[in-house]
Amino acid sequence: MNKKIKDGIKSIKEGVLEQVQEGKVSMHSRYYFLLRAAAGIVGGVFLFGFALYMASMVVFIFAGNGMSTLPELGFVGVFIMLRSLPWLLILIVIALVVSTLAYGSKFSFVYKRPLIFSLIGVVVLITIGGILLAQTSMHHKAFKFGEEYRVPFASKMYKEYVLRGNAGLRIGTISSIISDGNMTVQLRNGSNVNVIITNNTKLPRRRVLKKGDVVMIVGDYKNNEIQAIGVRPLERKHTLMPMRHKR
C-alpha cells in the first residue's frame, strides 16, 4: 500500500472521528440496526398486505355485483361496467403499489434490479394475491359481521360499494312474475321495483327466470320502475345479499 493511499485512509478516519466528537455522527449498537431492519420489514409487509386486501376488495366487489356478465349486453353493458367500478378503491390500490415499491427501494434486493421489473413483480403479486384472497370467505364474513353487529367501518364500506345501485345496475330477488313477462323484484336495499320487459330486453337464452332467482337488472330507474335493457341471473352463493333476503 503506497503512502498516498495510507494518507487517504488516515484522513477519512480522522474526519469520521472529528464528526463523532462534534456530535454530527452518532454511534449505534448492532441491536439498533437489527431493530431498524426489523421495523423496515414489518412496515413493508404491512403496506404489501394492505394493498393485497384492497385489491381483493376490488375483485370481491366486481364479482359480488355480477359485473362479469355485463359485457354480454354489448357496448351499453361495457359502459355501465366501467362506470360501476369502484374507482376510489382502485386508486387506493395504485397508491399502495407505488408506496410499497418506494418503501422497498431501501432494500438491496429491490434497488439492485431495474425499476420496471420491480414494478411488474409487485403488480403481479398483488393482482394474483388479490384474486386468490377474494375467493376465500374473508369478505363474506366481514360483510355479514358488519351487517349483523352494525360495525361502523365494515358496514358502511361494504354497503357503499356492494349494496348500492350502481349507474343503471341493480341486483335483487324476483318476488313475482306477471303474465306479460314483467316482474317485481326486491332490491338489495329492501325496496320493491317493477321491472318492465320489452322485445328489446336481453334475457338469458338457456334459463327461464322464476320467483326467488337472484337477478341483475340493467336499465333506467324512474318512478319505482326499471325499463330493462337486460336481465341476467346470478348465482346466490357468489352474490352478496343482505341477511333479510335469505330464504
Plain-language structure description:
The chain is of the alpha+beta class. Among the domains are: 30-69 and 85-144, no CATH class; 168-235, Copper binding periplasmic protein CusF (OB fold (Dihydrolipoamide Acetyltransferase, E2P)), CATH 2.40.50. Helices cover 53% and strands 15% of the residues. It contains 8 helices and 5 strands, in the order ααααααααβββββ. It has helices at residues 3-21, 30-64, 75-84, 87-104, 108-111, 115-134, 138-149, 152-163; strands at 169-177, 183-187, 192-196, 214-222, 225-234. The chain has a 5-stranded mixed β-barrel with strand order 1-2-3-5-4. Helix 2 crosses helix 6 (115-134). The protein is elongated and about 95 Å long. The mean pLDDT is 76.
Concise summary:
It contains eight helices and five strands. It is an alpha+beta fold and 247 residues long. Among the domains are: 100 residues, no CATH class; 68 residues, Beta Barrel (OB fold (Dihydrolipoamide Acetyltransferase, E2P)).
Notable characteristics:
alpha+beta; 247 residues; 5-stranded mixed β-barrel; 15% strand; OB fold (Dihydrolipoamide Acetyltransferase, E2P)
How are the SSEs placed, and which strands pair?
Blueprint: H1 3-21, H2 30-64, H3 75-84, H4 87-104, H5 108-111, H6 115-134, H7 138-149, H8 152-163, E1 169-177, E2 183-187, E3 192-196, E4 214-222, E5 225-234
Parallel strand pairs: 3-5
Antiparallel strand pairs: 1-2, 1-4, 2-3, 4-5
Helicity, in percent?
A: 40-55%
Mean pLDDT comes to 76
Major beta-sheet overview: 5 strands, mixed, barrel
Distance between the termini: 87 Å
What radius of gyration results from the CA coordinates?
A: 28 Å
Inertia-based shape: elongated
Which stretches are poorly predicted, pLDDT < 50 over at least 5 residues? Answer: none
Following the backbone from N to C, one meets helices and strands in this order, namely HHHHHHHHEEEEE
Give me the number of helical elements: 8
Global structural class: alpha+beta
What proportion strand?
15-25%
Kindly state the number of beta strands. Answer: 5
How do the strands line up in the largest sheet?
Answer: 1-2-3-5-4
